């Protein structure tokens, strides 16, 4: 079963070796780690593990904000070598649980309109399309009540 572990000095280098199909939609592992560092006051990077093997990563918001533009999780991906094994759905479940623990009532994600795989995945996980983003009409907001 998948579990989450915060990315820190003990595992960040292993995360760099993760690969994913399309960096047009999700940043490289190095970019995600840089984003986590810059956003460290409100975002935390997590690795998804199957046993002791890292199979993916994401950024999670640490606490709810009072404004509607904050996203609960972003930069979510499963390594190419571990796709089609059900890890993505398990990882989403753990992300949602972590967000509940952090006080979120609603989980939000933002998806680029051309990312058909992610759009279908979000819908299949129970997220509903809420609207186009205010800041860029190429993106679609999805939400889920926790």
Describe the protein:
It is a single chain. This protein has 146 residues and is an alpha+beta fold. The protein has four helices and seven strands, in the order βααβββαβαββ. The protein has helices at 12-16, 29-38, 87-101, 116-124; strands at 2-6, 43-50, 53-61, 73-78, 106-112, 128-132, 139-145. The strands form two sheets. It has a four-stranded antiparallel β-sheet. Strands 5-7-6 form a three-stranded antiparallel β-sheet. A hairpin with a 6-residue loop joins β6 and β7 (139-145). The longest helix is centred in the middle third of the chain and has 15 residues, at 87-101.
Descriptors:
3-stranded antiparallel beta sheet, single chain, globular, alpha+beta, 146 residues, 7 strands, 4-stranded antiparallel beta sheet, Aminopeptidase
Write the CATH homologous superfamily. Gcn5-related N-acetyltransferase (GNAT)
At the fold tier of CATH, the topology name is: Aminopeptidase
Beta-strand proportion: 25-35%
CATH architecture classification name: 3-Layer(aba) Sandwich
Treating each run of at least 4 consecutive H or I residues as one helix, how many helices?
4
Distance between the termini: 22 Å
User: What's the structural domain tally?
Assistant: 1
Q: At the first level of CATH, what is the class?
A: Alpha Beta
Oligomer: single chain
One letter per element, helices H and strands E, the order comes to EHHEEEHEHEE
Overall body shape: globular
How confident is the prediction overall: mean pLDDT? 87
Radius of gyration, CA atoms, in whole angstroms: 14 Å
What is the count of β-strands? Answer: 7
Query: Low-confidence stretches at least 5 residues in length (pLDDT < 50)?
Result: none
Strand arrangement within the widest β-sheet reads: 1-2-3-4
Q: Roughly how much helix do the residues carry, as a percent range? A: 25-40%
Largest sheet: 4 strands, antiparallel
Question: What structural category do the secondary elements indicate?
Answer: alpha+beta
């Amino acid at each position: 079963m998948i579990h989450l572990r915060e990315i820190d000095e003990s595992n960040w280098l292993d995360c760099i070796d993760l690969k994913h199909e399309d960096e047009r939609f999700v940043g490289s592992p190095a970019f995600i780690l840089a984003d986590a560092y810059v956003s460290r006051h409100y975002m935390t990077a997590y690795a998804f593990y199957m046993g002791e093997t890292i199979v993916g990563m994401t950024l999670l918001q640490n606490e709810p904000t009072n404004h509607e533009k904050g996203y609960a999780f972003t930069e979510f991906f499963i390594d190419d070598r571990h796709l089609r094994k059900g890890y993505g759905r398990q990882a989403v479940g753990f992300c949602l649980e972590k967000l509940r623990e952090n006080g979120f009532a609603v989980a939000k994600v933002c998806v680029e309109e051309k990312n058909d795989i992610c759009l279908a995945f979000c819908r299949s996980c129970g997220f509903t399309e809420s609207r186009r983003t205010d800041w860029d009409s190429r993106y679609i907001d999805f939400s889920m009540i926790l």
